[in-house]
Amino acid sequence: MGRRSNKERVPEFFTAEVERLDQEGRGIAHLDGKVVFIQGALPGELVRYERIRSKSSYDIGRVAQVLRESPYRTKPKCPNFGIGPGSCGGCAMQHLEPAAQVAFKEKVLLDTLWHIGKVKPESVLVPIFGPTWHYRHRARLTVRDVPKKGGVLVGFHEKASSYVADMKHCKILTKNVDEMLVPMRELVSKLSIRQRMPQIEVAVGGDGRTALVFRTLEAPSEADMALLLEFGRVHNADIWLQPKGPESAHAVLPENENALGLSLSEFGVRISFKPTDFTQVNHALNETMVSRAVRLLDVQPEHKVADFFCGLGNFTMPLATRSARVIGIEGSEGLVARARQGAAENGVAEKTEFVARNLFTWCEDDWQKLWKRMGGIDRVLIDPPREGALALSRVLAETDLRPARVVYVSCNPATLARDCAILHHEGGWHIRAAGIMNMFPHTGHVESMAVLEPGPKPEKKDEAAEAIEAKIAQGDAEVMGA
Prior knowledge:
This protein is α/β, with parallel strands linked by helices. It has three domains: 11-73, CATH 2.40.50.140; 110-130 and 281-474, 3-Layer(aba) Sandwich (Rossmann fold), CATH 3.40.50; 138-256, CATH 2.40.50.1070. Helices cover 27% and strands 26% of the residues. It has helices at 98-117, 175-178, 181-190, 222-235, 283-297, 316-320, 333-345, 364-374, 390-398, 413-427, 463-474; strands spanning 13-17, 20-21, 27-31, 34-39, 46-54, 58-68, 123-124, 138-146, 151-155, 199-204, 210-215, 237-242, 250-251, 261-264, 269-272, 304-308, 325-330, 352-356, 379-382, 405-410, 430-437, 447-453. An eight-stranded mixed beta sheet has the order 7-21-22-20-19-16-17-18, sandwiched between helices. The chain has a six-stranded mixed beta sheet with strand order 1-5-6-4-3-2, with no helix packed on it. Strands 9-8-10-11-12-13 form a six-stranded mixed beta sheet, with helices on one face. Helix 1 crosses helix 10 (413-427), helix 9 runs parallel beside helix 10 and helix 10 (413-427) crosses helix 11 (463-474). The protein starts with 12 loop residues before the first strand and ends in an 8-residue tail after the last helix. Mean pLDDT is 93; it is low at 1-5.
């Protein structure tokens, strides 16, 4: 007898009590000695679920019926949210009340710090949160011409799929972009190159100015260009084209090249950016985050500050308004050049310096040269990508040239835990405080901030430090944040 095909698979249903959530917002349960990750389930719920995947050590399922409901369950606001086939993958937790999402993320942070790094902060910072809906000022929308689904689709991918969700609205994108989704579909459907346009990148400035970057694998025709420019005029959006990599992106109308910007009003700073640059997606929360970081650093007018992974100067320029001197260090030559220009535009060029350096190979010699160049360093701000700041953490753990305080801004609890473990167990640094920032409501992303101060170095590595080093040497997926 032949093997039954996937289409003929008989659904299997089970009942389980949900214990907690994982970092993707799935409920975690145990059944017959096996871990089960259940999409759409919340802690404390009794659910009937369908098993959709089975592995030797775990199963994955999705809720079929909630038999006992959590008091924190709420009705999703977005029509695209769900757990079944075709549902949008942009959000994971719209069924959980926003306040409970914040509590969940705080627990993820503290559990990860202890589980991976064997460190506990001396105090927990009050969570930072901002708008729950229409907060997302940046997005990369996939474009597909799918005749079987009625034509062109523009939106996020479906959950765990390369297909594009059939989205007509999105409650996390800014209101003007939300209202543009259907018109964008209609626009692309009229273009001769609709099958050669895989994505549209959206960027909205602090003042609402909007840029749409159309990725084009083939040059638009004159008729296409007329349609694009008319769309921009009607919907008040700057039209950009990107024929190759991000560096090839350019505004169709040259006067729009430097139109986007975000403001940090407390510091009197405006940062200009291109629509393909990295900027925080949640502008309201970004302002609060920068203010908290500067305050926690306790920067004084005489201080000299180093800002690692500085990007366009999101922290560097505000720090320059409070200190004697700031140096921003970043891996991209292009971003460094743009940060210098931004410092001049904001009147802080004399107090800032920007240099390009690969921070993933940072070493003690680099640190000593920087210390000498600055005439000492009083404060350090670290804001790395998901990979964390392993090399820099090792240097700060080993060096005798220590700043009095470090603030570490993280977008990955696993690498934050790893780096804090190295600083604490090997360098004697104290984790004075840590807390979360709900930069991405309704998703599993956990953004956080930690405050560290130097203490006496341990005479020898303790067991926790040796365990962390062993995991790093083995390329442990959890520690590396994969």
